[in-house]
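Example S7 (structure tokens).
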């Protein structure tokens, strides 16, 4: 165990160093090849993806169902996609100063950076007291059209929905944000975790007592793998004995059999379109072969925001133009669209957070991190969206 802790600390330090170098580098404010961001180029990338899907995934397609859910007909599939598209693309952020419960962060301190100067409150403080002491960023809500409302829910509702589900979150550090949100929501206090490099299984919900079957537990694990590789060991022969730190690729595929919901994300570790496309096709083919009944979800990558350290920022009126963005952030939408084609082809779900988060320049962790958000903060909406996604899939019905 001491060895694991030491290795985790070393990998964490190395990853922080790498990310610091990555963000301290100051490129020009435009991508070198803006033509690659044009609508025609995106359509061409999608068409190329469809060709490769037909060539490589024709035995793994699900045109009218979603494995791991109760979506079994084409009609239900189209209805599900239409509703989720309405929620994620037709909504807008609206400031609402009506006091309401706010998610309390109890896990990794880095996500609490925005509250480091906040007035400490008594643990029995009222909702109104907590609200008055909260940042403005948490007072925005995602308002959707009447035809696709976001349902309210309780922890008991969520637990009932995910009874028996075993979640595996795989991706870069932005997937660790989802890990933190889930722990904050389902636990009243801090939970022992060895960080993003050596995370263990966490129980999210237990059935009401007396229960005797661990199959009814809902469980989550996070595995850090920045490019969703299927490598079998942390150090391979071609690595010449060195741990690769440009992309952290912890092995994770050996235990996919223990999980029935796999949430994937490639995050901010850039690959060209050809590499991105072919590697994701290989991965979903592998997952569908080894765990064909799992619910596969691809969580879309959210863009970063420039100059995110100003504490008085408000949500942008309009999202950035792709050509304004450095660090290949302008390529994110195109590669999300590539991922959407691939994941839906194999009966998976494309979870669109890109549209929801693209204007939330406010309340990033800051410093050198303009990718992740403080908790509580803009990313709290991910919990609402995950609940409605699973509910619309008729999970456990």
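Recovered sequence:
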């Amino acid at each position: 165990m001491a060895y694991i802790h030491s290795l985790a600390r070393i990998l964490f330090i190395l990853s922080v160093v790498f990310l610091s170098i990555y963000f301290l580098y100051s490129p020009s404010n435009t991508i070198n090849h803006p033509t690659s961001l044009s609508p025609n180029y995106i359509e061409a990338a999608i068409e190329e993806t469809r060709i490769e899907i037909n060539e490589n995934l024709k035995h793994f397609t699900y045109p009218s169902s979603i494995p791991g859910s109760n979506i079994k007909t084409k009609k239900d599939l189209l209805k599900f996609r239409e509703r989720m598209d309405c929620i994620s693309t037709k909504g807008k952020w609206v400031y609402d100063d009506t006091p309401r419960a706010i998610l309390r962060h109890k896990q990794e301190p880095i996500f609490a950076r925005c509250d480091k100067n906040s007035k400490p409150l008594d643990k029995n403080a009222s909702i109104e007291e907590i609200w008055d002491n909260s940042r403005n960023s948490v007072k925005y809500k995602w308002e959707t059209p009447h035809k696709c409302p976001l349902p309210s829910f309780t922890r008991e509702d969520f637990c009932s929905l995910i009874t028996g589900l075993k979640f595996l979150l795989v991706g870069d550090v932005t997937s660790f944000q989802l890990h933190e949100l889930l722990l904050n929501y389902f636990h009243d206090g801090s939970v022992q975790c060895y960080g993003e490099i050596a995370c263990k299984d966490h129980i999210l919900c237990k059935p009401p007592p007396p229960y005797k079957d661990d199959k009814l537990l809902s469980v989550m694990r996070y595995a850090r793998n920045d490019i969703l590789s299927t490598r079998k060991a942390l150090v391979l022969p071609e690595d010449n004995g060195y741990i690769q730190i440009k992309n952290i690729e912890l092995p994770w595929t050996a235990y996919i059999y223990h999980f029935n919901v796999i949430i994937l994300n490639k995050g901010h570790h850039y690959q060209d379109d050809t590499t991105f496309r072919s590697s994701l096709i290989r991965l979903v083919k592998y997952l569908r072969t080894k765990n064909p009944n799992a619910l596969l979800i691809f969580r879309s990558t959210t863009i970063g925001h420039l100059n995110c350290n100003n504490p008085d920022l408000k949500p942008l009126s309009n999202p950035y133009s792709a050509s304004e963005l450095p660090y290949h952030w302008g390529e994110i939408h195109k590669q999300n669209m590539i991922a959407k084609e691939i994941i839906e082809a194999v009966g998976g779900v494309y979870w669109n957070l890109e549209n929801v988060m693209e204007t939330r320049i406010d309340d990033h962790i800051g410093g050198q991190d303009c990718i992740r958000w403080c908790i509580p903060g803009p990313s709290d909406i991910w919990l609402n969206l995950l609940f409605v996604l699973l509910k619309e899939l008729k999970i456990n019905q």
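Notes on this example. The mean pLDDT is 88.
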